[in-house]
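User: Can you model how manganese (II) ion sits in this protein?
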Amino acid sequence: MNITYYGHSCFGVEIGGKHLLFDPFITPNSLAKNIDAATVKADYILITHGHDDHIADAVSIAKRTGAAVVCNSEIAAWLEKQGVANMHPMNIGGKKSFDFGFVKCVNAVHSSGLPDGSYGGHPMGFVIESNEKNFYYAGDTALTYDMKLIGNYRSIDFAFLPIGDNFTMGIDNAIIATEFINCSDIIGMHYNTFDPIKIDKEEAGHKFKRAGKSLTLLEIGETINK
Ligand code: NI
Ligand code: MN
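Assistant: Here's the modeled complex, given as C-alpha cells:
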C-alpha cells in the first residue's frame, strides 16, 4: 500500500492498483506548490466534510479523472451542481464494499459548511478495510469517545489523525486517540498549513515517542509504503 502526501490533509493511497485520494486541497496550499493537482491520480475521492481546505480541488480532479466521489449526501448534491457526475453518497454508520475493500463512515466532531455557504451535512471519518491493511482516516475532528468504537471492533494497522490543534484535536489529544482506536502507528495531518495550526514537529515526535507511539510526518510529495 503506497501512501503519498499532497499537503495539509490530502493523501493518495494506492490499494491493489486503485488510487484513493483523501480531502483534496492542493492548488490553494502554498506549501504544496510543487504538486500539480492536474496530474494527481484518483479512482476514488473520499471527502470528510465540506470545508474548502478539504474540497478545494475535488471538482477539477473528479471531472478530469471520472473518479467516484465518496462523501455525504449533502456534499454529493453540491458536487452534482458543480458538474461532477460520479458520486457515491454515504453517511455515518454505513459500510460499503468497493473494488479496493470496504469503506465505513464514522463520526467526526467538527462542522461542515461548503465553500459557497451551502449546508455540508455532518462531517465524518473513514475506516478502510482491505486485503492489504486496515486504516482510519479521521478527517477534521476533536478527540471523541466514539473513537473507542473503532478500536474495540476492528483491527486498525495505522491511522491518519489531525494534530494541528485550534480547529481539530492537537498532539496531546491525538496521543489519547491512539489508545481509543487501539493503534500506535500514526500519520499526522492538518498541521502547519495555516498560522493557527503551526506545530513544533520535533516536539510532536518526542511526545509520541515518550507515550510509546509512532508519529510519521511526511514531506509534501513524499511516498511511503505500508
Ligand atoms: Ni474543517
Ligand atoms: Mn480543515
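A couple of observations from the model: The chain is about 20% helix and 25% strand. Residues 49, 51, 110, 140, 167 surround nickel (II) ion (ligand 1) (CB under 6 Å).
User: Helpful, thanks.
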